[in-house]
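Show me any protein, fold above all:
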Amino acid sequence: MAVMKEKLTDQEAVVAIGQQDVRVRFVDGVPSDRSFMVRLVKQEGGTWVAQAVPLSSIGRFVPSSLDDGIDLWLSARGIRLTEKEKEAVRRFWETEGGSIKQKQETVAALTAKQLEVTETHLRLAHEALHGPPLGDLLAPLLTKTEEPEETDEAKGVPVREQTERWEGSRAYAAASELVLPPAETRTFVMTAVTEKMRQLVHDFRVWQRDMARQLEQFAHAVAQQATERATPLVESLIHSLDRMLLNGDWLLFTDMKTETKLLEAGAKLAEAKRGLAEGKMDEAAKTAREVKALLESLRFQPSEQKVMRFFIESDERQGTKPHEQLSRILKQASQAARDNALSARGVVESLRRLGFFHEQEAARALLSGERLPPVENLKSLLLSWVEEGTAPAQAERVLMNLTGQQLLNKFTVDSHTQTMLYQWPLSLHGEMATVHVHVNARSGNGQLDWQNCRLYFLLDTNQGKVGISLQAIERQLSVTVETESEKLAAVLQSYASTVKDHLEQIGYRVQRLAFQPMDTEDEERAATDRMKTENETSQWEWTI
């Protein structure tokens, strides 16, 4: 089964087969139908030679056995497996729980990521797609390790008006106001916090100077009409800014306003790159100067609340018992939702705490040749428990869920689009809840295209489910909010103007912001209908 994605010529087109975008040359010309069957003949380079088969000419297949049914389904989806992989699918089909449709979705999702089809991979992917939400799996693990609510003393003194900039050793002042046991541990942690702040000030200033220098070089190249020299410069600037947003340590201690300015700078750099490609040199140079002025106006002013949190977390790590680590990690992972302002970097750090980047960070630490401190995250903790033989019964299933999500988030280099999914456990109303995040985006140069993407969020509240769909095309944004409760819809609508202003502040132009009731009578049918109107590669946005 194929779905038309993009017609290139009268004989060539990009079509979606399963969850993969495939370049196809049709022997009899590109079909006019949106959906059709294809018979793949042979592959020539990166293009398949194929023949279109009208749906009207296809009869109903009645499989005589389980094996025949699997083979027919694989063939209809354009999925080609080795005999060893087919045998793994057959065993998975016979032994794994869930409906036939769910198993089909698991196989399709795994092959779309170009992963080897093994029983282990199938079970992991199936657990992530169709098992209990991650928040539900974590709840039993927390029953014996719940921590009391923070006291007023632990939260620290209220944020007061800043009369001077926080720099270097001054940053320890906030931590010194905490009421903690006077001991050698506290002295050690205080010293660590002070040194940390000094290093962050240095890192910030180095990065700021480097960005200003590159922006000057870019503006100079544009003024001289040197497009070949200017293009790699603006790409390097965008990469440096993205890397800072995702990994810069100093950004963890600033407020939401600073992060918003960096996101705004990223949007402006994207405009400069587009202006350069279109030959609008004056506009590109003007935008570069605006970004330079914006970045030079930044001051590293650590948030008192975040410095105190770093102090407390550093103190908690001293002599922590193994069974207390889980509560601390999950508390830190859900911290972004409890902050006064939910930041993009806060979400990334939450995913990092859960262990979604565990293998990547462990490999980076190993290859660096340096003795880096071990990365503390949920996955590394559970793996150590399993290795020691002290893991709770639920730990193995949590590991399966996390690893399954990692498999399904594999970046496929030669794919026109990428699909990702995340389950983000949060503490809501004293219980563990799960926000499902599904991403479908174009890809290029090894990255997701944030200007052209589609996101779907699903969360369950005490007022019913909420689904939020965001579609961005060249930073033109359409937002649709689905709710089960009219009361909840009214509350969310009261925040519409605030949300719109915030999105426009970071470089999006909101074209549409709509609210509609969620179809609760037949969610599966509703999801299927919506999938039919979209490219098949986006089905994981709707299969929650």
Q: What stands out?
A: DSSP finds 22 helices and eleven strands in the chain. Confidence is low (pLDDT under 50) at residues 58-64, 147-181, 521-544. Residues 377 and 385 are 13 Å apart (CA to CA).
